[in-house]
Amino acid sequence: MPQKDYVKTARPKPKAKPKASSARRGNARSAPQARWPWLLIIITVMLLLSFGWFLWYLKQQPESVPAPAAKVTSTKPAADDLPTKPVAEPYQYIKDLENNEVQVDVDLSKLEPQGPYQMQCGSFRQAEQAEAMRAQIAFAGFASIVRQTKGSNGVWFRVVLGPYDSKRQATADRNRLQRQNINGCQIWNWT
Description:
Helix content: 40-55%
Distance between the termini: 93 Å
Number of strands: 4
């Protein structure tokens, strides 16, 4: 069986050109070539006319002539050119704020520190998992400890950071850990 050439069969066959006289072909080609220069000339003339009209329009606009100024021989501005200084300050609140005190009622019990805070980043059943989390936290640049706690449902190994004096410090460390892809840390009051 003869081998079939699949590459040649996949190619479309070129369309057959209609046969026409050579005089006709010459006219067909010369018509588009003759049309383009005239089109370019028309567009150029229109652009030049519109530019000329724009310049004429600008010339018809009234000119804004500045008022003639008095000749000044000195390079320093004259004192007459400056606005007059106000006699009294139009706003009184500036003097009122300088002389008055603002009284604020503050509840001191809310300002006192609420106590030390701790941050727990994991709670595991196996000590190896807790030590792996502790190693991740150590690579992030923080010191943590693993605490073993016994609860009603068994023994847990908790990875804890702290103590922190304020919740703001604990939150700042938690945000740094989140940037290192250590998520799920919770902040608790230690007391």
